[in-house]
Amino acid sequence: MEQEMSGHDTVLLVIDAQESFRQRDYWDESPASAYIDGQQALIDGAQASGIPVIQIFHVDGSGPFSESSGFVRTLAPLRITPNATFRKSRHSALVGSGLDVWLTENGVRRIIVSGIRTEQCCETTTRHASDLGYQVDYVGEATLTFPMTDAAGRTWSAAEIRGRTELVLSDRFARIATVEQALAAHTEQLAA
Asked: Which contacts (CB < 8 Å, 24+ apart) does range 179-182 have?
């Protein structure tokens, strides 16, 4: 874990935006490029606004998510200079990574969630953070997922999965925000 923090109470989490996903058979470069654009705009805007950027990597014992694979590194072509980096082995970035302690020690009260996968680690972290009392902005346009087929044989598109995630999180666990809205909320907080 690397650390550096300014005095802000808001942080941006960039969850699992790592090369490991390119090794999966469901990877699709076309929707990934739109995600990368949104994620980069959020990272750049956070850094310009003085919002600390926290990078989270998912690590497993074997396969493309293992440290030994060489794929647990930032998804290209994203450019990120994180203020802190954490590794997790669970869906929530707040379990077993040390992130929860770091957030408390640094007085964080608001979290902006982004990354990969929309309905898995991003949604789970959002719910967990909300239950712990954090204000959460969920930036769907800066998340990425892939089509999935359910038990009845229906294939859900990535857009449908994102829509479902935003539906169940909205006003219960998070404010659903665009890149611009998430960054503007920070500016409004500073002005208040």
From this structure: 179/38, 179/41, 179/42, 179/45, 179/139, 179/141, 179/142, 180/45, 181/137, 182/42, 182/112, 182/137, 182/139
Ranges of beta strands (E only) in 75-173 are 84-88, 110-116, 135-144, 148-149, 155-156
Assess contact for 143 and 120: CB atoms under 8 A.
no
Q: Rounded to whole angstroms, how far apart are CA atoms 114 and 19?
A: 16
Q: Which helix (H) or strand (E) holds 12?
A: strand 10-15
Tens digit of pLDDT per residue, the chain (192 long)? 444 434 479 999 999 999 999 999 999 998 899 999 999 999 999 999 999 999 999 999 999 999 999 999 999 999 999 999 999 999 999 999 999 999 999 999 999 999 999 999 999 999 999 999 999 999 999 999 999 999 999 999 999 999 999 999 999 999 999 999 999 976 666 555
Tell me, yes or no, if the pTM score tops 0.90: yes
Q: Looking up tokens 């994180």, which residue turns up? A: 82
